[in-house]
Amino acid sequence: MDTHFDCLVIGSGYAGSVAAREMAERGGRRVLVLERRGHVGGNAYDCLDEHGILIHKYGPHIFHTSERRVFDYLSRFTGWRDYQHRVVANVHGRFLPVPFNLTSLHMAFPKEKAARLEDKLLSAYSANARVTILSLRENTDPELREVADYVYENVFVHYTMKQWGQTPEEIDPATTARVPVLLSRDDRYFQDPYQGMPLEGYTPLFQRMLDHPRITVELGVDARERMALEDGVIRLDGEPFAGPVIYTGEVDELFSFRFGHLPYRTLDFDFETLEVDRFQPTATVNYTVSEDYTRITEYKQLTGQVVPGRTTIMKEYSRAYTGSPGEIPYYAVISPENNALYGRYRDLAGGFSNLHLLGRLAEYKYYNMDAIALRALTLCDGILEQ
């Protein structure tokens, strides 16, 4: 075995790449990164399709954060294209901005009624507030309750049924209650102060982050073939490995599904290149009341790439993850039962003093890109302080 590595990182997405760079650069460790895929970047990987359009192969990724530390850190490895993400919902042929806001209100209701509803909303709540469906449904004014019902029926419930494979009765009432109505005309999907798209794409960002003399990246390597966990000892290529091991993959897979599979949702993507300059009004259109797919993404509008007379769109379908070859687990299915199952795997991991679980799959929870970058920075803070 090659014994010159001080740290082992499994996976090269946001979690693994940020951790590897921190351990190598700030910690002075010699880091081995094992990546199962043939490329770095995890699900944020982007590439040119056969028609020369820059696409996000595993679904659209839009960077936004309120964390200055994360923005400054990633800015070391990329410039940024100023991009403010806007999403509309196709509601029976009308494109309404989402989250639902005052502009949406005036598009959804007749002119006089919309003006009256706006006055009532601004009188009952403060301007620029995020008012939840629950708050509106608890209001004594029946017209404000009508707004809540409209948003629930036309923006939330059918989309959520497609996304999570649930009936309305199965959807967590707490989730429904948090669905917001924005009392502003700011139609950006995110309001974070730092937003943008990597100027040259996500893949060059990750390549630069991992380009360090103390980082070795091995692609096309399944860590299970190199690493074994037994009796509180992690072995790499058959020999004990005492340095930090940062694992970003599926935690149930790490332990050979000892307690069974953790449930996930996966996504199927249907890419199509069209001979038009532009296909839809915004980069993302959600289909909240129609179609089997949840949304269509038009990549040129995300990246700013100029390719006259041609555009690539992607339809996105959600379904249950089965673990079949080629499937990718995207979203943990959070429930008390599934959290308890994850807890059993987390307890197993706790039996290895140098094993650190990091990321959506390893921690069985949803993280935005900026949140997982911050998690990686914070984890490395703790390791390097020891």
UniProtKB/TrEMBL annotation:
Its cofactor is FAD. Its EC number is 5.4.99.9. Residues 155-366 form the UDP-galactopyranose mutase C-terminal domain. The keyword Isomerase applies. One of its GO terms (cellular component) is cytosol. Keywords: FAD, Flavoprotein, Isomerase. PANTHER family: UDP-GALACTOPYRANOSE MUTASE. This is UDP-galactopyranose mutase. It comes from Intestinimonas butyriciproducens.
